[in-house]
Amino acid sequence: MPEPTVDPRVDPTVVVAADYFPSYSVVGLLAVVGVLFVAVAFGAGRLLRPVVPTPEKLLTYECGVDPVGEGWAHTQVRYYVYAFLYVIFAVDSIFLFPWATVFAAPGYGATTLVEMFIFLGFLAVGLLYAYKKGVLAWT
User: Fold this and answer.
1) Angle ∠(58,59,63) on CA atoms, nearest 5
2) What is the CA radius of gyration of the chain?
3) What residues contact residue 130 under an 8 Å CB cut-off, 6+ apart?
């Protein structure tokens, strides 16, 4: 492809911005094709599936056991706490990898180091809180 000639009267930022728009049109076209693909798949599924409602199909299903008794049940909260702690540490590990790459870049060392210690301080306070509440003790 030959080099485009640049008119000295045209702002160079306009020329650079004009080069980006074809890329955005490809992304937009891909998004439209993706939405159409999902819509066609759901439409075909709706047209092709058999619809035969029976009393068994209309029952509430939970793990293959027929529902018996009331709908109110007492649940253990500790499993949610474990899940919450997992999410905290997963976010921590996800944040540490990009931080390490930025920390290595010249000119960002001190700023990113302070930001990371602030972030790790918040995590340490959360971990200390969980420890004081006895969440980390295995029962």
Assistant:
1) 125
2) 28
3) 81, 85, 136
Confidence of residue 14 (pLDDT cuts 50, 70, 90): low
**How far out from the chain centre does Cα 80 lie?**
19
Q: Give the tens place of pLDDT for each residue, 35-73.
A: 999 999 999 999 999 888 888 777 776 666 666 667 676
Give the global pTM: 0.38
Query: Distance between CA 46 and CA 44 in Å, rounded?
Result: 5
Q: What distance in Å separates the CA atoms of residue 93 and residue 81, rounded to the nearest whole number?
A: 19
What is the end-to-end Cα distance of the chain in Å, rounded? 69
Q: Is 80 a residue whose pLDDT tops 80?
A: no
Cβ density class 67-97: b for 16+ within 10 Å, e for less: eeeeeeeeeeeeeeeeeeeeeeeeeeeeeee
Q: Is 65 helix (H, G, I), strand (E, B) or coil?
A: strand
Q: Is the pLDDT of residue 26 over 70?
A: yes
Return the amino acid letter for 72: W
Q: If you count them, how many residues does the chain have? A: 139
